[in-house]
Amino acid sequence: MISFDQLGLNTALLDAIKARGFETPTPIQAEMIPFLLTEERDVTGLAQTGTGKTAAFGLPILQNLDLQSRSTQALILTPTRELGLQVSREIAEYGKNLRGLRTTTVYGGAPFGPQIRDLRAGPHIITATPGRLKDLLDKGIADLSALRFLVLDEADQMLDMGFKDELDAILATANPSRRTLLFSATMPPEVARIAATYMKNPHEIVSGRRNQSVGTVIHYFYRVHAHDKYEALRRLIDVKSGMYAIIFCRTRETVKDVAARLSRDGYTADALHGELAQNQRDSVMDRFREGNPSLLVATDVAARGLDVDNLTHVIHYDLPDEVSAYTHRSGRTGRAGKSGASLALVHMREGHRVAQIERIIGRKMEEAKIPRGHDICEARLMDLLLRVKDVEVNEEAVGPYLQAVRDSLAEFDREELLQRFISVEFNRFLEQYAGSVDLNPTVSKAPPKRRESGPMVSLRLNVGRRQSILPPQIIGMINKATDSGNIRIGRINIDADSCEVQVDSAMAQRVEQALNGYSFQGKTIRVERVADRRPATGKQRGPWRSSGKDRPPARRPKKGRKDKASRNG
Ligand code: ADP
Ligand code: MG
Prior knowledge:
Blueprint lengths: L10 H10 L6 H12 L4 E4 L6 H12 L9 E4 L3 H14 L8 E4 L5 H9 L4 E4 L1 H9 L10 E4 L2 H6 L3 H10 L5 E6 L4 H10 L4 E4 L10 E8 L4 H11 L5 E5 L2 H13 L4 E4 L5 H12 L5 E5 L13 E4 L6 H8 L9 E8 L3 H11 L4 E2 L5 H18 L4 H14 L5 H20 L22 E6 L9 H12 L6 E6 L4 E6 H11 L3 E2 L2 E2 L2 E3 L33 H6 L1
Parallel strand pairs: 1-6, 1-7, 2-4, 2-5, 3-4, 5-6, 8-13, 8-14, 9-11, 9-12, 10-11, 12-13
Antiparallel strand pairs: 15-17, 15-20, 16-17, 18-19
The structure holds adenosine-5'-diphosphate and magnesium ion.
């Protein structure tokens, strides 16, 4: 196993790392630190949260600083104030043995005065949120003309938060001969665009499998009707004892509502959302870090600065709008070698989102059932029994009380004692779930409505007769890859090594994305759009007659003809 001493870091930094208590570098540190110290190239790092990226870029930057100079040599952009402060604190700690090191953090929502003062002092490293830094640049305060390192930390989050214009402005004005380092948990097109526009031949470092969520997280999803979500949430909480979890909701209204209902129902839960003042947010986060309360209901943005290592669960009360947010949420459990679970409540119309998330995280989400009342009672009883079996009895401490206990329970025999002892812990669940209903929706077999007409797009796949593919398999593959039985499919043509399939143009992109990389009999599917080869004016050569409009006829199921036959045309 590689050690920090082998990475080429100087003793001032190695001492600080040792003081910090780190023993071995994380994989991304082991790869990135020597690279940044020896090569002059830009770098993109694709890695989940919690993989140690701050030290991976922070240590080489610190080693490269010219501390005699008063110019700003490194800029680290982070999505939120909390992350900025966290990175800044960490860098200051690694650099604590570097004489004369000046660092500063700037972020929005705070007065300009002190930040301007700090910037005028000529910090070597600035950590900033994009919005505030852009404002300061516009005022002519910060000077990035001598910058040597520009770090985009959590680039996908910055773009999710709408910092596109600010990033463009900052990247376009900072010293063009700087090195740019970009870190992101996912690589959506917007992030790829930033990399393509502002980075030179970047070296790509991927920590773990590309786009994969942390290895020890198990992903479950539960189908529920939207109106049963809260009841379902309670059951997920009740079935586990000792749950330490963040419950993510899409909006602050939902956060407030869920937290209020949980409190009313006897759970200890706090709410974290953007309406709270900073000091309130800080105290909510502090309490939660200490584990009391052990449930936190939060929006994605508000929870960003919250660093907790030992969450047992992340619950997606709502699925996030952006898949990258799912990765960030789930990356908060299963940390530091522990295992964790990510539980998503998915309502009936969100099936395709599951497939989308699976593709990005590169693993299956297991479909699980909302526990029924008696499942919960049973689980809690088993848990109680385990705790009774495992508890350490301190004879000395309980000794003095035993006689009194014996006397007061003398009237009960063993059987009665057991019953009472269970009921103390258990009545709450028995009462709560007496007569409770099953929240798992019955899956309706009726096919959902599909659009019957509209423009079609032809896609070519790199499988054909040689792979013995037939139309039903192509249709099956599309349905499965997109997790939908609802996509209108037109003509299918199969050649020796490829096939063409027409799909509803509104769905074409989804089909394309879902099928690309899909595997058919061991062969990786590649999809390309077939260019429209119809003459601009004349008649279409397709199977349908031009109706003057650019669309095929409606594909209606015809009596007595099998789907396969009509598609095989
Ligand atoms: P990321 O930026 O990838 O989300 P961080 O840099 O914030 O991750 O690191 C996550 C946590 O791991 C932090 O608490 C950090 O102090 C700790 N950490 C980083 N590197 C190591 C290491 N080599 N050994 C142990 N802990 C580490
Ligand atoms: Mg980080």
